[in-house]
Amino acid sequence: MLTDLIILFIAGFLGGVLNSIAGGGSFITFPALLFVGVPPISANATNTFASCSGYMSGTWAFRKDLAEIKAQLPRFVLLSLCGGISGAWLLLQTPEASFEMAVPWLLLFATLLFIFGGQLNRNLKKLSTKHRHASSAGAVLLMMLLFGVCLYGGFFNAGLGIISLSYLALAGHTDINRMNGLKLLISTFVSLIAIALFAYDGVIAWYEGSIVLAGTVLGGYMAAHLSRKLPQQQVRNFVIIASTGITLYFFYDVYLSQSLPH
User: In this structure, how many other beta carbons lie within 10 angstroms of the beta carbon of residue 228?
Assistant: First the structure.
């Protein structure tokens, strides 16, 4: 138990540092929960619980930027709640074995988003400037897309921040502080409504999640000082290497190890 506690706390600490500097903390915390024996669906729900405090504190930090577009915020909150609870409900309807088979593909998707998300966002910004005067049908399509983003976040938390930024770029947002504030607002309400459903269903591992949460809070606080010293690109490179390795391991563990002769 002591070993598990140490593993979870260190994973939470590293996840908090990564989330504050470059993103990608779930690539550390989610596998750590699986490693100590938390079942896949419970580990995913617990990871959402452990990540939420960081989203909430981040949203508060950008409150002045969000106040500039306060008329738009109810729409974001409503769609985040609707999408988040839909994704969480979908996760709870998914058989454990099926979700376990899907984990490598979800991690692969999140890894590719992390690697290519910046380039995708730049391309989407260029596209949005060319089509700034979109039709009402385009506005409805954007709302449906945001619902889909939030549904993904309720189902699987890793990569939600990056895919949210991609949506905001496509929707024509250009102010990076406002985009980060909206990204965190979306993540906060998706996570809160998902956590409520997960808690009601009893799938959150509260003890393990609380240890990760404590590490995440400390890591996020420490990163405020570390971020001035650590080159962001080097941190990103570490996340890319780690997430690629973890994704390959899960593909091996889920699809290959069981078929190999013992």
Answer: 7
Distance CA 105, CA 94 (A): 15
pLDDT more than 90, % of the chain: 44
In contact, 257 and 58? CB cutoff 8 Å: no
Q: How far apart are CA 238 and CA 258, in angstroms?
A: 29
Give the Cβ contact number of residue 62 at 10 Å. Answer: 18
Name residue, tokens 């500039």.
68
Lowest mean pLDDT among 159-168, 186-195, 223-232: 223-232
Separation CA 227–CA 151 (nearest Å): 31
Alpha carbons 237 and 168: distance in angstroms, whole number: 24
- C-alpha 99/C-alpha 92 separation (Å) is 10
Residues 6 or more apart whose CB falls under 8 angstroms from that of 41 comprise 91, 92, 94, 96, 99, 203
| SS3 (DSSP) at 14 | helix
The pLDDT tens digits of the residues spanning 105-140 come to 988 988 888 788 777 777 776 766 665 555 556 677
CA distance 16 to 191: 16
Whole-angstrom distance, CA of residue 128 vs CA of residue 120: 12
Q: Can you tell me the mean pLDDT for 226-250?
A: 79
pLDDT beyond 90 at 48: yes
Q: What is the pLDDT of residue 259?
A: 59
Name the CA radius of gyration of the chain, rounded.
Answer: 18
pTM metric for this prediction = 0.84
Q: Is 95 helix (H, G, I), strand (E, B) or coil?
A: coil
Q: Is 231 exposed, middle or buried (0-12, 13-18, 19+ CB in 10 A)?
A: exposed
